[in-house]
């Protein structure tokens, strides 16, 4: 019987070991799933939707090839709506994939006739092209002739969440969530890479392989033990025997002894004792082995808990219909770095054309004037550089249309003496999907400024209309109201609406300073000339971003005109060095007009609040000068 059990143990052990090894070798599943597509050779843009990228679980690997110019190829991903808005008037290919039968389909999307959404400056930029849903067969011959008109270059667009260019685009690993699409392209003139390969990893774990191999080895040991035990017993049973002698006479029967319950029975004979000693360890080993195997199998069969991604909504408050923030925090960091590089190049060369790549409105106007002055006046200090980071605050607009506005506060490095500088606040505007974010306002925050409670960057804020009456002062009236205070001081009707306790700008150029300047000129030159001040609206737009307390951060661009006019025949007006450098006129027999531009950011509380409007930061400087007749 022992030999039979040993043979059974050997057979079962062999089966278990072979099955465990086979799971790790010949029966091992493939390590990845691959889907390949070939698009027409003249295709400039290829879009891969998140539904395709997430057809299988795990990190996606995108491989591209077939580009005529590998240096110009790029891979980027962004929100699906943004990608379609960028491609609104362009023809592109889409790739569809069915995980069930691994079917790959390439379709061509043709824009509607006359679609110009991406190049316009209004909300029409969100118009999306109408798909033709016409399968495009893979090319079998030479590339077809391209359209004569080159397309836009997607490389370097601020719209993308991330971007890979040149050789970095050959193989790209990503984890694209739902609602995000990938765009593959060249430079807009050359075709996109026409061979697209998507790869997903496959779980190749074999949880039963190790328990089977271990269990087989345990049974093998048990089989060997049973075999040795049976062999030992068999040899003992066939050993030499003594011949029996004459029978002894029977002894008289003694009375039967009845043991009491308190006396234990002793083993019967030495053979019984020895057999018991042998059987006990063998049975114990068998029980332990089988118990270990069963426990391992039960443990392996128990599913290991794996983290399950929580379904989250990218829209505020979990509402899929709510607009999402215009940019993400990493996206904004990349935009600020690009702006920093462009600003440094323009500042180093005093080149207004380079500044136009990233500045518009009041920020560009002040930089242009500074460049013009520094060309003729070498000791004129440059405007503060735009640091590459880090970001101290970001407030993107929650919107799915254009134009889009983003507010950012960037930490400034210490100055040359090691003294800390006030952070730099930027107001960025993107007019259309294909435009980059441009710096509209760039100001230094006031020391110890108290920034109101703002929405988190993951939710974004709404833009308040300029004529909103829900604020203590309408946004489109803030510039004129503050300008009136600069001119008239406490006599202004708006004086009580503003908190001027820590206002540094009023102290520098307010009504008191203006009166001192007029008195100084009268004392120095008598009544030969007059100095007057007047306020007016600048060309910069009014930007209002809502705060959590129903107030708003309001950016405005007032201007102040200083007119120094001759009032006595034969007298002359002497221009200052800065004014002379910008106007080209050192002295005039009639007069000189100097215009100072102000970039201001205010916190405006909600209507009915006991708080006052307060200045958060400012930038100001001479923006134009000319001789007047």
Radius of gyration: 42 Å
Q: Provide the helix percentage.
A: 25-40%
Structural class: alpha+beta
Largest sheet: 11 strands, mixed
| Number of DSSP helical runs | 12
From the N-terminal CA to the C-terminal CA, the straight-line distance is 127 Å
Strand content: 15-25%
Number of folding domains?
3
Low-confidence runs = 120-146, 261-318
| Mean pLDDT across residues | 83
Number of strands: 24
Structure description:
The chain has 629 residues and is of the alpha+beta class. It has three domains: 1-28 and 208-234; 32-201, no CATH class; 329-627, no CATH class. Helices cover 28% and strands 24% of the residues. The chain has twelve helices and 24 strands. It has helices at 2-24, 50-53, 80-86, 209-237, 269-301, 329-349, 352-355, 361-376, 475-488, 504-509, 511-525, 577-583; strands spanning 32-38, 45-48, 60-65, 74-79, 92-98, 103-109, 131-135, 162-165, 171-174, 180-185, 195-201, 391-396, 404-410, 424-430, 438-445, 498-499, 529-537, 543-546, 552-556, 558-566, 573-574, 587-588, 591-604, 613-627. The strands form four sheets. Strands 12, 13, 14, 15, 16, 17, 18, 19, 20, 23 and 24 form an eleven-stranded mixed beta sheet that branches. β14 and β15 (438-445) form a beta hairpin. α1 (2-24) packs antiparallel against α4 (209-237) and α4 packs antiparallel against α5 (269-301). Mean pLDDT is 83; it is low at 120-146 and 261-318.
């Amino acid at each position: 019987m022992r030999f039979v059990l040993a043979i059974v143990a050997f057979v079962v052990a062999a089966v278990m070991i072979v099955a465990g090894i086979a799971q790790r070798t010949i029966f091992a599943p493939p390590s990845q799933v691959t889907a390949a597509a070939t698009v027409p050779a003249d295709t400039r843009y290829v879009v891969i939707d998140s539904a395709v990228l997430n057809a299988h679980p795990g990190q996606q690997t995108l491989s591209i090839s077939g580009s005529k110019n590998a240096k110009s190829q790029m891979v980027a991903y962004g929100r699906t709506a943004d990608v379609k808005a960028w491609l609104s008037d362009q023809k592109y290919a889409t790739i569809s994939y069915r995980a069930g039968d691994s079917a790959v389909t390439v379709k061509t999307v043709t824009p509607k006739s006359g679609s110009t959404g991406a190049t316009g400056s209004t909300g029409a930029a969100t118009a999306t092209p109408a798909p033709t849903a016409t399968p495009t067969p893979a090319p079998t011959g030479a590339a077809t002739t391209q359209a004569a008109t080159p397309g836009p270059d997607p490389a370097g667009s601020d719209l993308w969440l991330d971007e890979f260019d040149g050789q970095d685009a050959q193989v790209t690993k990503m984890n694209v969530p739902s609602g995000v699409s990938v765009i593959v392209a060249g430079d807009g003139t050359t075709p996109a890479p026409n061979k697209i390969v998507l790869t997903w990893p496959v779980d190749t774990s074999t949880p039963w392989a190790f328990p089977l191999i271990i269990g087989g080895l345990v049974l093998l040991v048990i089989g060997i033990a049973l075999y040795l035990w049976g062999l030992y017993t068999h040899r003992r049973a066939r050993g030499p025997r003594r011949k029996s002698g004459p029978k002894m006479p029977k002894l008289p029967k003694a009375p039967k002894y009845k043991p009491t319950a308190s006396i234990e029975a002793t083993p019967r004979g030495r053979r019984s004792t020895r057999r018991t000693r042998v059987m006990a360890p063998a049975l114990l080993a068998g029980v332990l082995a089988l118990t270990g195997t069963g426990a391992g199998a039960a443990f392996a069969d128990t599913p290991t808990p794996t983290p399950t991604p929580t379904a989250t909504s990218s829209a505020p408050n979990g509402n899929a219909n709510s607009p999402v923030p215009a940019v993400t925090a990493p996206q904004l960091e990349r935009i600020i770095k690009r702006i920093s590089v462009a600003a440094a190049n323009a500042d180093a060369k005093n080149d207004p054309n380079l500044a136009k790549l990233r500045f518009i409105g009041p920020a560009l106007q002040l930089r242009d004037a500074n460049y013009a002055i520094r060309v003729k006046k070498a000791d004129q200090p440059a405007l503060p550089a735009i640091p590459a980071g880090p970001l101290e605050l970001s407030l993107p607009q929650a919107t799915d249309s254009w134009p889009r506005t983003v507010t950012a506060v960037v930490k400034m490095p210490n100055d040359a003496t090691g003294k800390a500088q006030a952070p730099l606040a930027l107001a960025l505007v993107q007019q259309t999907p294909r435009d980059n974010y441009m710096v509209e306002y760039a100001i230094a925050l006031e020391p110890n400024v108290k920034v109101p409670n703002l929405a988190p960057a993951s939710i974004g804020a709404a833009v308040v209309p300029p004529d909103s009456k829900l604020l203590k002062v309408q946004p489109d009236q803030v510039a004129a109201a503050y300008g009136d205070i600069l001119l008239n001081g406490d006599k202004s009707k708006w004086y009580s609406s503003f908190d001027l306790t820590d206002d540094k700008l009023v102290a520098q150029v307010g009504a008191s300073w203006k009166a001192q300047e007029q008195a100084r000129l009268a004392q120095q030159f008598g009544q030969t000339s007059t100095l007057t001040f007047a306020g007016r609206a600048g060309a910069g737009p009014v930007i209002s971003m809502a705060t959590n307390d129903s107030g708003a951060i309001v950016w405005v661009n007032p201007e102040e005109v200083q007119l120094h006019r001759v009032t006595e025949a034969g007298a002359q007006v002497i221009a200052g060095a800065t004014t002379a450098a910008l106007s080209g006129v050192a002295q005039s027999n009639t007069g000189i007009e100097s215009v100072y531009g102000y970039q201001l950011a205010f916190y405006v509380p909600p209507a009915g609040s006991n708080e006052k409007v307060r200045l958060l930061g400012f930038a100001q400087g001479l923006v134009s000068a000319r001789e007047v007749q």
